[in-house]
Write a structure and sequence with these properties.
Elements (H helix, E strand, L loop, with lengths): L1 H35 L1 H10 L9 H33 L4 H25 L12 H28 L6 H27 L1 H9 L5 H43 L6 H10 L3 H29 L40 H6 L7
InterPro entries: YedI
Protein name: ABC transporter
Keywords: Membrane, Transmembrane, Transmembrane helix
Amino acid sequence: MAGGLAALLDDVAALARLAAASADDVAAASARAGAKAAGVVIDDAAVTPQYVQDVKPKRELPIIWRITKGSLFNKFVIVLPVLLLLSVFAPWALPILLIFGGLYLSFEGAEKVWELLRGHEKKAPAAAKGADAEDAVVKGAVRTDLILSAEIMVISMNSIEQDSLWMRAAVLAVVALGITALVYGAVAILVKMDDVGLAMSKDHDSPAKQKLGRRLVTAMPTVMKVISYVGMIAMLWVGGHIILVSTHDLGLAQPYEWIHGLEVTMGGGVLGWLINTFFSFLIGLGIGAIIVALMHVLPFGHGKNDEHEEDPAGNMAAGPGGSRRAPGSSGKHPAVGDQRDTEISPNPRI
């Protein structure tokens, strides 16, 4: 009896060691996979804040949470099962799916460039247009997230050395959770920094804190504008890079080989990365511009119908870095707009 119990305990200990080793393997593989996808993660973080630009402060976090839930749905219900199935039954199809994703991102980025050049933006974020406009913003953000999530997960899966299907599934699940928390947590902090600044500016016991708070509130419109442009550029860069790499994976030597040759000539490193990024951006912009032109010419396009779209207050939409302005409003991100302008005096002594 005692011998049987000892053997059972040995088996339990062995299983525990095996589980711990497997957990370590998953953690290590997840870290490597996440690092490989870092570039797309940065793009995801840059793209997302523009969707809550011009949103009332009290709706910022709820919208981010809705997008976060949509992102988790994308990763766990759509991307993860599809990638695992394709990796087993049709690995050749992955580059094709990525090309479609790259085309979509290139189109989105080029359309924003076109709207910027025209002086107004068809897909400006919802400000005070109600639940329908907010739903449209969330759906658009989740669609873009689906493309970026697929790219992140594919890059992560390609970096997994283990052949086990369950190990790949575990690593991808950890990557999906970690990256989603990182991206949308950072976005939530970013878009609420003006609220932090407002609270600091009301601290009459600390002039230094008041001054810092006012600077935060003043700086955030510029920060959000810069981020909106970074997001626009990121869409073109990532979209072009997806197309560049995926077409090469399908057997198309050029232009990938030519660009790679330039990278090698420049010695690789940061300069090589900049060359690849620059040409990826040009590819995304060029292909995206063609798609935008087709969308505005073909019968099912939407260019003519939206030529003079206005918000309910009669204000034209702004470009990627701008905002829909209500009469008498400041040009700021509403999170630091009229309400906060009235609460914060320009006089250093509040």
